[in-house]
From TrEMBL:
SUPFAM superfamilies: Complement control module/SCR domain. The chain crosses the membrane at residues 91-112. The keyword Transmembrane applies. The lineage of its organism: Eukaryota, Metazoa, Chordata, Craniata, Vertebrata. Keywords: Disulfide bond, Membrane, Transmembrane, Transmembrane helix. Residues 30-87 form the Sushi domain. It comes from the Eukaryota. InterPro entries: Sushi/SCR/CCP_sf, Sushi_SCR_CCP_dom. This is Complement receptor type 2-like isoform X1.
Length: 119
């Protein structure tokens, strides 16, 4: 497969990244790396051996080493070096902005009500 296996439909009815296609793997070609929660520049369906791409994680995401940008190079046979990493949600931001947010809103609301009642 040339391109990402995970794509999304934007509001303007365009697929991002480009819709993948199937081709035989050849020695001098790499498909677009599969990246969730990040962007690839330049974004193409395939790359020739030696070409590089820059992966940038979306806001509030980073690689396991806390960086947000990495450059990888096509080695041919659909292999990238170094291998593309996952863009992971930053833990603290996940706790504050993720599923724990309703709990914090409830806790602050209850604390405020108790404070008002005691006045």
């Amino acid at each position: 497969m040339i391109g990402n296996y995970l794509i999304r439909c934007e509001k303007n009815n365009n697929w991002v990244p480009i819709v993948p296609s199937c081709k035989n793997i050849t020695s001098g070609i790499c498909g677009s790396p599969s990246i969730l929660n990040g962007d690839i520049e330049p974004l193409q369906p395939q790359y020739e051996t030696g070409k590089t791409v820059v992966i940038t994680c979306n806001r509030n995401y980073s690689f396991i080493d806390d960086t947000i940008i990495m450059t990888i190079q096509c080695q041919g046979y659909n292999l990238w070096h170094p291998p593309a990493q996952l863009c992971l949600c930053n833990f603290i931001k996940l706790v504050i902005c993720g599923c724990s947010l309703p709990f914090w809103i409830l806790a602050v609301t209850m604390f405020y009500r108790k404070y008002i009642e005691e006045r």
